[in-house]
């Protein structure tokens, strides 16, 4: 089976159509359509069914997609391992990338200078999606998350704190946040989910949620009196405006939040080396062994 055909087929599925897949692949749409038709003829099955202007997978198409993902992942892994050192593609929460990973990645580079690390940041949900699509080999995600068939090891714990503008009243109960604006990452952020759950426990709900894409922006908005937010204490300690906000403790069952390193399938040599540098290295060895 031609890997290029599989790549074209998967691109049409992911992009939701021939035109967008052609743009991604730097091909003309007619070429992509022809390749798909030739692929179907060679396999003797129909892979797509047209519904209006959209394409949907047939049962044969769904079966092939499952195999295509695995075959393309194996091909990518083989190519990376054949190259000098290779590339380790990781996903990470912004909090971990900014506060926890720098010393770990620095130690990794010192031990394995021939391996290049590519890092993408996002919410837990977004990172799991990247992992599911084999766009990263492993990701640092936060509880709660759906583990499914993924393998995981605990990486480190984060202490979460509630922050509001300086000079405001002390927040002791979730109900005291009723009607306030919450400043948070977009949907899919585990810390945001924790805060919403705490509010729900107290019978409260925010007036609105202002979505930001970085902790610097979140802390700045809170310092400016926009609303309240929940952030890792380690990240707040390193923020420029850390002294311009008021810290409030959250309940014990929400205060400590664990970050996990998750991956799918076999562990490559670079990933195993990275695991050995985590605070939970013993747990990693146990999980692999």
From TrEMBL:
Which GO molecular function, any one, fits this protein according to its record? transcription cis-regulatory region binding
Which Pfam families does the UniProt entry name for this protein? HTH_1 (PF00126), LysR_substrate (PF03466)
Does the keyword Isomerase feature in the UniProt annotation?
Answer: no
Which SUPFAM superfamilies does this entry report, sorted A to Z?
A: Periplasmic binding protein-like II, Winged helix' DNA-binding domain
Top-level lineage group: Bacteria
> Residues in domain HTH lysR-type?
1-58
Q: Kindly give the InterPro entries that the UniProt entry links to this protein.
A: LysR_HTH_N, LysR_subst-bd, WH-like_DNA-bd_sf, WH_DNA-bd_sf
CDD domains this protein is in? Answer: PBP2_YofA_SoxR_like
Alphabetized UniProt keyword annotations: DNA-binding, Transcription, Transcription regulation
Instruction: Tell me which family the UniProt entry assigns to this protein.
Output: Belongs to the LysR transcriptional regulatory family.
Q: This chain belongs to which protein, by name? A: LysR family transcriptional regulator
- Species, as recorded: Methylobacterium oxalidis
């Amino acid at each position: 089976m031609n890997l290029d055909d599989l790549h074209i087929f998967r691109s049409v599925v992911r992009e939701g159509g021939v035109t967008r897949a052609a743009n991604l692949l730097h091909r003309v749409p007619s070429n992509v359509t022809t390749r798909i038709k030739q692929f179907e003829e060679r396999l003797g099955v129909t892979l797509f069914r047209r519904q209006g202007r959209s394409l949907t997978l047939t049962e044969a198409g769904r079966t092939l997609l499952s195999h295509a993902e695995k075959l393309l992942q194996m091909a990518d892994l083989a190519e990376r391992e054949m190259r000098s050192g290779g590339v380790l593609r990781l996903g990470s929460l912004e909090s971990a990338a900014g506060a926890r990973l720098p010393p770990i990645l620095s130690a990794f580079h010192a031990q394995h200078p021939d391996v290049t690390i590519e890092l993408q940041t996002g919410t837990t949900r977004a990172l799991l999606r990247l992992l599911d699509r084999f766009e990263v080999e492993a990701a640092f995600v936060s509880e709660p998350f759906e583990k499914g068939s993924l393998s995981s090891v605990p990486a480190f714990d984060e202490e979460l704190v509630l922050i509001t503008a300086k000079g405001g009243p002390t927040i002791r109960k979730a109900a005291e946040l009723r009607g306030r604006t919450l400043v948070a990452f977009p949907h899919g952020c585990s810390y945001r989910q924790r805060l919403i759950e705490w509010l729900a426990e107290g019978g409260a709900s925010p007036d609105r949620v202002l979505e930001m894409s970085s902790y610097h922006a979140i802390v700045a908005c809170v310092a400016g009196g926009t609303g309240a937010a929940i952030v890792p204490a380690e990240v707040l300690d390193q923020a420029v405006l850390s002294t311009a906000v008021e810290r409030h403790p959250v309940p014990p069952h929400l205060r400590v939040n664990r970050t996990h390193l998750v991956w799918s399938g076999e562990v490559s040599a670079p990933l195993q080396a990275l695991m050995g540098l985590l605070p939970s290295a013993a747990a990693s060895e146990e999980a692999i062994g």
